[in-house]
Write a structure and sequence with these properties.
The protein is an alpha+beta fold. The protein contains six helices and six strands, in the order ααβααββββαβα. A three-stranded antiparallel β-sheet has the order 1-3-2, sandwiched between helices. The protein is elongated. Pfam families: FUR. GO terms for molecular function: DNA-binding transcription factor activity; transcription cis-regulatory region binding; zinc ion binding.
Length: 142
């Protein structure tokens, strides 16, 4: 995967530092710490301050290409998100559908951190049924 094109495709200005950070995340199979990214950058002779790495990870997270996991005590791990997995919420009354981001990668990371288990299933598609806000309001006012 060409990381320059990947960043440009998400309207992110391309720099050597950003390319290095996203390449490191792409090479990792699990969420990693800022310190890990910092050390990997040093190993590649890319000199970045920790604050620069934090700022770029926050930008990537805001753009939806990196997921951020709260480990507690103000520490976070980060993992690249190449393809956002989505789920559908369907109203059982009006049948309106809303697409939501799948939180499974976050749940998998929490499970792995707490238990050491890795989820074996790669794909999980859900269509959840419920009542949308508009229909719930209409039911209250009947």
């Amino acid at each position: 995967m060409n990381m320059e094109e990947f960043l440009r495709g998400h309207s992110i200005k391309v720099t050597k530092g950003r390319i290095s950070i996203i390449e490191i995340l792409h090479e990792c199979n699990s969420a990693v710490s800022v310190e890990h990214i910092y050390e990997q950058c040093k190993d590649r002779n890319i000199i970045l301050d920790l604050s620069t790495i934090y700022r770029n990870l926050e930008l990537f997270n805001n753009k939806g290409i990196v997921d951020k996991f709260d480990l507690g005590d103000g520490k976070y791990n980060y993992i690249i998100n190449l393809n956002k997995h989505k789920h559908i919420l369907e109203c059982t009354i009006c049948h309106k559908e809303v697409e939501i981001d799948c939180p499974l990668s976050q749940v998998e990371q929490i499970i792995k951190n707490k238990t050491g288990f890795t989820i074996a299933e790669d794909e999980l598609d859900l269509k959840l049924k419920g009542i949308c806000e508009d229909c719930a309001i209409k039911q209250v006012h009947k």
